[in-house]
Write a structure and sequence with these properties.
Elements (H helix, E strand, L loop, with lengths): L3 H5 L11 H8 L5 E3 L13 H10 L2 E11 L4 E11 L2 E7 L5 E8 L2 E6 L4 E4 L2 H9 L8 H6 L6 E5 L5 E6 L2 E11 L2 E10 L5 E12 L5
InterPro entries: LolA/LolB/LppX (IPR029046), OM_lipoprot_LolB (IPR004565)
Protein name: Outer-membrane lipoprotein LolB
Subcellular location: Cell outer membrane
């Protein structure tokens, strides 16, 4: 599998201090892997929205994996993804529908580095540039972590669900709809979201696994 995978895809039809409870969950339950939906709410403590936001905003290491669907008025493609986040590093892996690695982008203080399946490499100043080379669509990659976490540090909350979590966010020309949440280790985390942007771009993310905690996520 080479970088030409995406080019060959046939178009489809055209901070207040964290309370004691939150701190315990962050250092204990959250250190384990959780696949959504992995937990029955009736048997686990689910944090309030305020405490949930404090814990999520304080996470230094986390990982989200799942499936994505990206469409424009002219084409569409499906792919798997895994996003790994740490204080000074990001790593985004992209997979074809068979689970084979198409590309891996790593970001560190020196810049962004792309490695393709055929061994070719590229470098750029930021993740956005390299992701556009792989997907052939410009996405606000720097905002994706907050979108996946359900945070709105750079966005405006337009609507909230009954639990007080965002159901619609607005960030520049992008509108993010949270279609489904799921309990993960005491937190309520996004499971399905859809972002619509300029030029008729639609990005749909189904997050099937969360890994999070206070130490490096393998």
């Amino acid at each position: 599998m080479t970088a030409s995978y995406f080019r060959q895809l046939a178009p489809r039809a055209a901070r207040r201090p964290i309370r004691t409870l939150a701190a315990l969950l962050l250092t204990g339950v959250l250190s384990a892997c959780a696949t959504t939906p992995p937990i029955q709410p009736s048997t686990h403590i689910i944090l309030s929205t305020t405490e949930r936001n404090q814990v999520v905003a304080s996470l230094k290491y986390w990982q989200a994996s799942g499936q994505a669907a990206l469409s424009t008025p002219k084409t569409s493609k499906d792919f798997g993804f895994r996003w790994k986040q740490s204080p000074h590093h990001q790593e985004l892996s992209i997979y074809d529908p068979l689970g084979r690695t198409v590309a891996r982008i790593k970001v560190d203080p020196q810049g962004a580095h792309l490695q393709l399946a055929n061994g070719e490499t590229r470098q750029a100043n930021n993740l956005d540039t390299l992701l556009a080379l792989v997907l052939h669509v410009e996405l606000p990659a720097s905002e994706l972590p907050d979108w996946m976490l359900g945070l709105h540090s750079a966005a405006i909350t337009e609507q909230q669900n009954p639990a007080g979590l965002p159901s619609v966010l607005h960030s520049g020309p992008w509108q993010i709809h949270y279609l489904q949440y799921a309990p993960v280790g005491g937190l309520t985390m996004p499971k399905l979201l859809q972002a619509t942007g300029p030029g008729g771009i639609t990005l749909r993310l189904a997050i099937t696994q969360w890994r999070m905690g206070g130490h490096s996520v393998p």
